[in-house]
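Researcher: Let's do a round of design. I'm pasting the structure tokens now; please hold your answer until I've finished.
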């Protein structure tokens, strides 16, 4: 496996009654990041975590906290998540004034990420690619865990990787949605170097072993 491929277990799928135990298990197994899905019940039809959960994670792990803001007005919450301990904040290209939001994230000293829903073309992100640290290609519709991986997103992933290479830009290319042992190979072959995985890790009896199995499926990016 390429050392450049990072695995980010998603705490959306963790057992919150055993959160510390499960986080420590994946950290010991070599997780690179923890992914925190923040949903506001408006941008997506679900409601999940706030800054207090990020702060709790910060107390129990030294892992980088990769925070995905699936919210309609992310600018309102940037400072709260920064203060709670997020290492990076990813916002959606579909929200208003996303350019200013990205600038504000970087001004706080955090890594800035940009996410695209499945129905949003890569062209929507192109004006911002030179000012981000991470591009997140959603391979399911955001809002719920446990969805089936959408193979029709693979061309978008390949196009994003090609754009990164041709433009000589430096950002992580992350995928989120249905990532498990059976799909990790096809996304890493197309250039993904950050993998969000929830249901393929945390609900299993041994999350650490599940993470190691996921790594075994990584394939080199196609040239």
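Researcher: That's everything. Go ahead.
Model: Designed sequence:
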């Amino acid at each position: 496996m390429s050392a450049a491929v990072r695995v980010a277990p998603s705490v959306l799928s963790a057992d919150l009654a055993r959160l510390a135990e499960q986080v420590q298990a994946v950290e010991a197994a070599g997780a690179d990041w923890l992914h925190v899905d923040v949903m506001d019940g408006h941008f997506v039809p679900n409601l999940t975590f706030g800054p207090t959960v990020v702060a709790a994670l910060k107390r129990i792990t030294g892992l980088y906290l990769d925070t995905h803001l699936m919210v309609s007005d992310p600018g309102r919450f940037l400072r709260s998540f920064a203060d709670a301990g997020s290492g990076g904040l990813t916002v959606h290209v579909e929200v208003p004034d996303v350019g200013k939001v990205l600038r504000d994230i970087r001004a706080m000293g955090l890594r800035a990420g940009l996410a695209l829903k499945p129905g949003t073309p890569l062209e929507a992100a192109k004006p911002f690619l030179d000012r981000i640290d991470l591009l997140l290609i959603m391979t399911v519709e955001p809002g719920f865990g446990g969805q089936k991986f959408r193979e029709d997103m693979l061309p978008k992933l390949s196009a994003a990787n090609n754009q990164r290479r041709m433009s000589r830009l430096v950002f992580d290319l992350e995928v989120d949605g249905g990532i498990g042992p059976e799909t990790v190979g096809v996304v890493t072959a197309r250039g993904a170097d950050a993998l969000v995985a929830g249901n393929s890790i945390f609900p299993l009896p041994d999350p650490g072993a599940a993470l190691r199995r996921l790594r075994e499926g990584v394939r080199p990016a196609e040239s």
